[in-house]
């Protein structure tokens, strides 16, 4: 069952991390990570967004890998995440960590699929994109137990030309 949140994507990013992570996420923003909208560290991920406002986020912790449905989304990425605490945190990069939403997850390695949608509408509406559901960027996070593997870009979206 998915849990729905509104997360402020300050600096166009959402953080997904182990509750005990002390990773400096500033170090994951390589040129490739910016292109992929995915920064990866051992116990923390950064999902890039198109907007610098609230994003509709759903979090779904699963027992096994879900079926692929990338045709329903604009940009889909996957990465492995080590969650030794068994507590997964989802937050905007400037949110206050002690107050960020937490989710029980299997302790150890999980796979996280980040599927983003409604990107063109959100991009066009820019700072007003979170004012209506029709223009709000959507981010679905699915996580399941899995051994660590390399990050994968399943589907890539590019901003429309100006």
TrEMBL record:
Lineage, top-rank taxon, reads Bacteria
* InterPro entries referenced in this protein's UniProt entry, alphabetically: ComJ_sf
Q: What is this protein called?
A: Uncharacterized protein
The beginning of the lineage is:
Bacteria, Bacillati, Actinomycetota, Actinomycetes, Kitasatosporales
């Amino acid at each position: 069952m998915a849990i729905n949140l509104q997360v402020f994507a300050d600096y166009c990013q959402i953080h997904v991390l182990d509750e005990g992570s002390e990773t400096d996420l500033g170090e994951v923003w390589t040129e490739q990570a910016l292109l992929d909208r995915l920064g990866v560290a051992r116990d923390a991920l950064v999902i890039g967004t198109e907007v610098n406002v609230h994003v509709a986020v759903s979090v779904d912790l699963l027992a096994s890998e879900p079926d692929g449905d990338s045709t329903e989304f604009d940009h889909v990425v996957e990465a492995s995440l080590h969650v030794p605490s068994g507590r997964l945190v989802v937050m905007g990069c400037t949110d206050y960590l002690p107050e960020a939403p937490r989710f029980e997850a299997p302790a150890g390695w999980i796979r996280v699929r980040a599927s983003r949608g409604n990107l063109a509408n959100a991009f066009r509406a820019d700072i007003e994109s979170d004012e209506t559901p029709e223009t709000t960027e959507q981010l679905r996070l699915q996580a399941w137990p899995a051994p660590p593997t390399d990050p994968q870009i399943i589907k890539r979206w590019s901003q429309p030309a100006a």
